[in-house]
Design goal:
alpha/beta; 6 strands; binds fe (ii) ion
Length: 250
């Protein structure tokens, strides 16, 4: 997807200087991936694992965003587009609406393998991008961006932020009777993932009403999350959210 249409996001677009990554950084990436994958092979959604292969992620080398985008383009048209860091909401929504996923290029250090206060390339690419190869998820994410880009009131945007949080960031799905993770915050955090798969987190059946009423907690492990039974459910929930927002019922 071209970045030429981006205006709000334009000041935040950067190039990924792939050659500048050090061998230590590639080694940190390898450690993060090799620590997470054995658990994820058991507990991640099938679509995540398929996406991991489709986008050509490597276990021992940091991802080259241009080659990932080239693999995604013919499938869903999403691009993993490098940005300088945290984006203001209008820039973020504009990027999603044009199928450009804002992707940071820096990597956490070995001293903070488990946690970074801001997203890095491990969270963004390993956590998010494999799902962008899935057609329904890809359509949902673009639609989310388009709807949010058209809203300026803070209250409905906060509610829609909860929908993003409990799907894209911390979503779980029921597959063949088991809870599987697909949200990037679960995929890219060993502690958050363990919290779910070891049963320390109550799993509710996904309901748009409940999700919109559940504030986001960023400072503790989740005590409850919402499981969809298929990705069609988040796609449909987004259309219902749009109807509510358009008629002032959000
Ligand atoms: Fe994220």
């Amino acid at each position: 997807m071209t970045t030429a249409v981006l205006s709000a996001a334009a000041p935040f677009l950067i190039q990924q200087d792939y050659g500048a990554y050090t061998s230590e950084q590639h080694a940190v990436w390898a450690e993060l991936v090799n620590r997470a994958l054995p658990e994820l092979e058991k507990h991640a959604a099938q679509e995540y694992l398929e996406g991991f292969a489709i986008i050509g992620l490597k276990k021992d080398k940091l991802p080259d965003l241009a080659s990932i985008s080239a693999r995604l383009a013919p499938r869903t048209g999403w691009s993993s587009t490098p940005v300088s860091g945290f984006l203001p909401a209008p820039a973020f929504f504009e990027m999603l609406a044009t199928r450009n996923f804002p992707t940071t290029t820096w990597l956490r250090s070995r001293e903070s393998l488990e946690y970074t206060p801001e997203p890095d390339i491990f969270h963004d690419v390993f956590g998010h991008v494999p799902m962008h190869s899935h057609k329904i998820f890809a359509d949902f994410l673009e639609h989310y961006g388009r709807v949010c880009a058209s809203i300026s009131d803070a209250a409905p945007l906060e509610k829609l932020g909860r929908l993003f949080w409990y799907t894209v960031e911390f979503g779980v799905i029921l597959q063949r009777g088991e809870i599987k993770v697909y949200g990037s915050g679960l995929i890219s955090s060993h502690g958050e993932c363990k919290n779910v798969v070891e049963g320390h987190c109550a799993i509710h059946r996904f309901s748009l009403d409940e999700v919109l009423e559940t504030p986001v907690k960023v400072d503790e492990l989740h005590k409850s999350l919402f499981a969809v039974s298929s990705f069609d459910q988040i796609y449909e929930a987004m259309h219902e959210a749009e109807r509510r927002a358009n008629s002032g019922r959000m």
